[in-house]
Amino acid sequence: MASHSNYTTAPVSEFLLICFPNCQSWQHWLSLPLSLLFLLAMGANATLLITIWQEASLHEPMYYLLSLLSLLDMVLCLTVIPKVLAIFWFDLRSIGFFSCFLQMFIMNYFLAMESCTFMVMAYDRYVAICKPLHYPSVITNQFVARATIFVVARNALASLPVPILSARLRYCAENIIQNCICTNLSVSKLSCDDITFNRLYQFVAGWTLLGSDLILIILSYSFILKAVLRIKAEGGAVAKALSTCGSHFILILFFSTILLVFVLTHVAKKKVSPDVPILLNVLHHVIPAALNPIVYGVRTQEIKQGIQRLLKKGW
């Protein structure tokens, strides 16, 4: 039997990422803003991390959590965007079997860790505004260390089954992925086996992790709003806490809005082009990463001053 590029009689050893099947003519144009966003994300997060590391005044729990967020953003960008740009520029569509499932794991794991980090940051802001006298004793370096271990362990346990379940399936025919990245459903639907359990696990795990984080974030901010409305005369510490609270809330909006639009387009996939969810999935790995450090850099005086001092040292 003759072998073809997208069908094989042997078990699949690599996949082909088609990216935007209906709009391949404008992929080169999309690569320009995408590469600029990627450079901005990497540069801004690296600057933020170096500033927090160099400035002793920023060695506080809140900024350690922000450093963790920056690290997660950088890993997500590096996992997705270089491969997408390689497809756009050099038509390097093939991705090895192991590499595909590794990318799948990192995407699921680090997005879940990012959501969990936002939840921890919301708790940090809740204590800062609702229980300011207890803040120094509650939000300590030990709290950040324990929270980081929780973020890493919880999401590893919940995310690891996704690529394992998908990799255990038999791939014996088609190997063309109608996507720019190795998402669980894009890959597993190419299998010869039944993928009902894979779909169910992704749905339950995703909504359990992201849903519980979102509920706790909403609860934290409802308590914060209630406390703010009760405050008659704001002191300097409260004003500072509210400022960083606003920055944090904007970051959550970046993260959750694109995710929500992505989910809605999947639900209404018959009414929108199949390229739209693919594009949103790619952008969700770079837009929040590019904007998060800028928001904190612009809105937080201590970080702004730290960056200015860092630039002066560089000159």
Automatic annotation (TrEMBL):
| Gene Ontology BP annotations | cellular response to lipid
Which one Pfam family would you cite for this protein? Answer: 7tm_4
- Keyword Transcription, does the record have it? no
* Compartment annotation: Membrane
Which keywords annotate this record? Answer: G-protein coupled receptor, Membrane, Olfaction, Receptor, Sensory transduction, Transducer, Transmembrane, Transmembrane helix
The membrane topology term of the UniProt record is: Multi-pass membrane protein
Q: Highest taxon of the source?
A: Eukaryota
* A GO cellular component annotation in the UniProt record: plasma membrane
Give start and end of each G-protein coupled receptors family 1 profile domain.
44-296
Q: Does the keyword Transmembrane apply?
A: yes
Q: Spell out the InterPro entries in the cross-references.
A: GPCR_Rhodpsn, GPCR_Rhodpsn_7TM, Olfact_rcpt, OR51/52/56-like
Q: Where are the transmembrane segments?
A: 34-53, 65-89, 95-112, 207-229, 249-268
The GO terms this record gives for MF are: G protein-coupled receptor activity; olfactory receptor activity
Which function does this protein serve?
A: Putative odorant or sperm cell receptor.
What name does this protein carry?
A: G-protein coupled receptors family 1 profile domain-containing protein
| Organism annotation | Moschus moschiferus (Siberian musk deer)
